[in-house]
Amino acid sequence: VACLAAFLGGKLRSREELALLGVAVGITQGALFLLLSVASGMVWYDLLGATAIYGLLGLAWSIVAIGISPYLEHLFDLVTTIRLVELANPNRPLLKRLAAETPGTFQHTLFVATLAEAAARELGCNVELTRTGTLYHDIGKMHDPKGFIENQMGAPNKHDLIDDPWKSAAIIKKHVTEGIVMARKARLPRAVQSFIPEHQGKMLIAYFYHQAQQKAAQDSTKTVNDDDFRYDGPDPQSRETGIVMLADSCEAALRSLKDATPEEALNMINKILRARWQEGQLAESGLTREEMGTIARVFVNVWQQSNHQRIAYPKLSIK
Question: How far is Cα 305 from Cα 93, in angstroms, rounded to an integer?
């Protein structure tokens, strides 16, 4: 009974399910005690009181588990399925702020989460951890929402006004360091925090890097240091964070596709994934080269589902 309860306990997604498990364990304990006692020659009606006690013990332990599990999760930084599901609730403070202060980033995050979750499920990874980590991976963008194009909503590009690729790159890089600070203040599990730096790894902020090279070519007093335009890392250390890096890299490209065929979309995604692989960004993630093809196909399937054709309704004349 204990082994079965422990196995099922790791798959629970809510405190309610934990309570129901306690009821099931209690009934099972009582029934087993009654059967074994009767089999040993005891009279069943003399055992009803003890059977009830065994049954109530299972229920009592579930009540205790519900009460103390949140404290144990925080004290020992445990990442249970229940905790991950609770952290993924859009009414959590950080996620509510993300939706209100950076609406463009929030929409980006939801699509990345959909891509990453589908890939994680296909590869047999931790789906709940992948989804929850993705929801928090860009919280650092709240430090400067207008510094990221998805939040500019048609307004002038802040970086055009700055006209300094070194400063712009610093703003972009800061969303990782600020995100880690926010995650620690919110006491997110370390496993969730890891998605913040690892989804960027040590990638180059290519757009501003090339801008800086152009300015340095025109002004000999300016020098371009690669480290100023590269995230600090670390590279993805798990399959889950590796998947999110790939989903994050492909999200904007997939959104830009309107009339492309699935084959064209797959070719584009394969190019992006191949680039990440060749850069060595995934070397420590545990993902294999063969899995790149699977991930690409999953991403295209998700894109097709979100980009389905709609009926063109006729315009109604207003009289």
Answer: 30
Last residue in a domain, options 76, 102, 117: 76
pLDDT in tens, 20-77: 766 677 777 777 777 777 777 665 566 677 767 767 777 777 777 777 878 788 888 8
Phi, psi for 187 (deg, rounded to 5)? 60, 45
Where in the sequence is the domain holding 272, given as residue range(s)?
89-306
Please report which residue ranges of the chain form alpha helices under DSSP H: 2-9, 15-39, 48-75, 81-87, 93-101, 103-123, 127-136, 158-162, 165-185, 190-193, 195-198, 206-218, 239-256, 262-278, 289-306
Distance between CA 27 and CA 55 in Å, rounded?
5
Write the burial class of residue 233 (CB in 10 Å: 0-12 exposed, 13-18 middle, 19+ buried).
middle
- Does residue 254 form part of some domain? yes
Tokens of 12: 């629970």
Structure confidence at residue 9 as a pLDDT band (50, 70, 90): low
Sequence-ordered list of residues with C-beta below 8 angstroms from that of 89, at least 6 positions apart, any chain: 95
